[in-house]
């Protein structure tokens, strides 16, 4: 592979590749980003930031199973990136995945808005909102898992 995967972003700056360069580990970076890493390798702080980004990148796209807590910590990053990809007409998300995301969001919204609940708010008050929060969390985790599988497929190719 002599070009970075389509619809991929640099794991250091999280934007589209400018002068893409492939490292020995087969990760792709912007040429400027990887040069900054090499130039600032002796200074502790910038290199620690880059290492943190690379560890996050490897955790998100490594395909390893993660704990529920780790998946909840990854939610903001994955959901922001998914939203950016769905809004960008130049990026392509498979139709089936896009449809599953929309269906999950619509069904969750219908449940949250509907007056029929597992734990009724009218009887238990504020405690009755727990089932709505749980449904929203399950929806977000499901959507993030779908998007993570797309990213893993793009990066791992299988």
The N- and C-terminal alpha carbons lie at a distance of 14 Å
Determine the number of helices (DSSP H or I, runs of at least 4 residues).
Answer: 6
Helix content: 55-70%
| Overall pLDDT | 77
Instruction: Profile the largest sheet.
Output: 2 strands, antiparallel
Which structural class best describes the helix and strand composition?
A: mainly alpha
The strands making up the biggest β-sheet line up spatially as 1-2
Return the string of H and E elements.
Answer: EEHHHHHH
Unreliable parts: none
Report the strand count.
2
- Shape designation: elongated
**Cα-based radius of gyration, to the nearest Å:** 19 Å
Strand coverage percent: under 5%
What does this structure look like?
The structure is a single chain. The protein has 158 residues and is mainly alpha-helical. Helices cover 61% and strands 4% of the residues. The chain has helices at 31-39, 44-61, 68-87, 95-113, 121-124, 130-156, and strands at 20-22, 28-30. A two-stranded antiparallel ribbon has the order 1-2. Helix 3 crosses helix 6 (130-156). The mean pLDDT is 77. It comes from Cardamine amara subsp. amara. GO terms for molecular function: catalytic activity, acting on a protein; zinc ion binding. Residues 103-137 form the DUF1232 domain. Residues 10-39 form the Zinc finger RING-type eukaryotic domain. This is RING-type E3 ubiquitin transferase.
